[in-house]
Structures are given as structure tokens and as C-alpha cells.
Amino acid sequence: MAALEHISVVCLQETKVTGFSVSMINELFGNNFDYFHLPSVGASGGIAVGWQRDVWLDTQQALGLFSVTLHLQPLNQPDNGGSWLTVVYGPTNDALKGDFLTELDWRG
């Protein structure tokens, strides 16, 4: 899907998936993508981030309770410092909103 549209980074929220198989990733992103994910909790949440391995190098990953953070370095510009990407999924439970905001503050 992503390869047909010439997309090099894909971010998905509310995946509702606890684990991804290689075939599932290949179907969603394409067979030239690497990925990192935050599993769902039951039928809620879940984040998946995929990137073309011939375009980006993943140099650092951080997994939180509500977020996935990656540092992606473009392979064709190794000296540009790369980019940080954070994908968040906020809780619907009011009791967790303080933890969510603390995590975002730590990421910032």
C-alpha cells in the first residue's frame, strides 16, 4: 500500500493490534519497510511506525506507555542530523491523563 504511493514513513494509530506478523507488515507497508510498534491494550490503542529501509536508518527508538519515538536518519544525507518522530495515542481514561502529559513533557 505505502510503496504504491511512494511513501517512505507511515504512522498508524488505534491499530488495535497486540503484535504484527511479517506478512501483516508487508501487506500494510510493503516488503521494504522496517517498523516499530506499541501494542494495543485489549481493543484500545496501538501505534505502528514503518519506514523504508532504503531511505531511512533508524538510529534510536523509545517506547512509552502512550507514544513511540524514533530518530530517523536519511541515508542519502548522512550529515544532516536526521529527524525525531513521536507518535502519540492519548488515553480515554481521565485517571491516566496526568501520566500521558508527563510522558509528553519527557519526550519534548
> Please, what is the average pLDDT?
88
Order of helices and strands: EHEEEEEH
Largest sheet: 3 strands, antiparallel
Provide the low-confidence segments as ranges. Answer: none
Task: Walk me through the structure.
The relative contact order is 0.18. The chain is flat. The chain has 2 helices and 6 strands; from the N terminus they run βαβββββα. The chain is 17% helix and 36% strand. The longest helix is centred in the last third of the chain and has 11 residues, at 97-107. It has a single domain (3-107), classed as Endonuclease/exonuclease/phosphatase (Deoxyribonuclease I, Chain A), CATH 3.60.10. It has helices spanning 22-28, 97-107, and strands at residues 9-13, 33-38, 47-52, 56-63, 67-74, 83-88. With 108 residues, the protein is α+β, with helices and mostly antiparallel strands. The strands form 2 sheets. A 3-stranded antiparallel beta sheet has the order 1-3-2, with no helix packed on it. A hairpin with an 8-residue loop joins β2 (33-38) and β3 (47-52).
